[in-house]
Amino acid sequence: MESTIEGAAMPNAVILQSEGLHEYILDTAVYPREAEPLKELRKATASHPTAFIGSSPDAGQLMAMLIKLVHAKKTIEVGVFTGYSLLLTALAIPDDGHKENEGRFDFAFVDADKENYLGYHERLMKLVKFYKIKMAATSAESSAENSAETETLAAAVTLGKSKGN
Ligand SMILES: C[S@@+](CC[C@H](N)C(=O)[O-])C[C@H]1O[C@@H](n2cnc3c(N)ncnc32)[C@H](O)[C@@H]1O
């Protein structure tokens, strides 16, 4: 089984209330399903001073499942960092899918400056096709005292609804 230290598991025990349970899920269900390029990227990112802001592989696999569920071909992402979520999106869309800067999108992922999420939401509601899925990473202040660290807790999924589609 893969070491979560080596793999830089995100401190995501807040939802599960148990770091041990989180590690068990990663070792038995998440890492075995993680594509090799994503594994390499995650390990390369682990030594980055702000590695904790990267998408976690478990959230990534949920995202990949959603992308496949809606047969997304055209996607957009705000907040790339070292590109884990970008790469998993590229691996999840079909060969004739693509990532673009403008146009109508099947899937949008926002994982950037949290204070601007309302603006991203309003813009993406116009860009994402009707009843496709918009996914935004949420964050919460770390419970550790005197720490400005935030950690990704979960992926909030909302149904996009835009006019004229
Ligand atoms: C939480 S990280 C993204 C993690 C990434 N999704 C992943 O899978 O590893 C947030 C990223 O958003 C970038 N960012 C912050 N504000 C931004 C903005 N206004 N526009 C675009 N990117 C922004 C940061 O530089 C950082 O790389």
From TrEMBL:
PROSITE patterns: SAM_OMT_I. GO terms for molecular function: O-methyltransferase activity; S-adenosylmethionine-dependent methyltransferase activity. Keywords: Methyltransferase, S-adenosyl-L-methionine, Transferase. It comes from the Eukaryota. GO terms for biological process: methylation. Its cofactor is a divalent metal cation. Belongs to the class I-like SAM-binding methyltransferase superfamily. Cation-dependent O-methyltransferase family. PANTHER family: CAFFEOYL-COA O-METHYLTRANSFERASE-LIKE, O-METHYLTRANSFERASE-RELATED. This is Uncharacterized protein. It comes from Punica granatum.
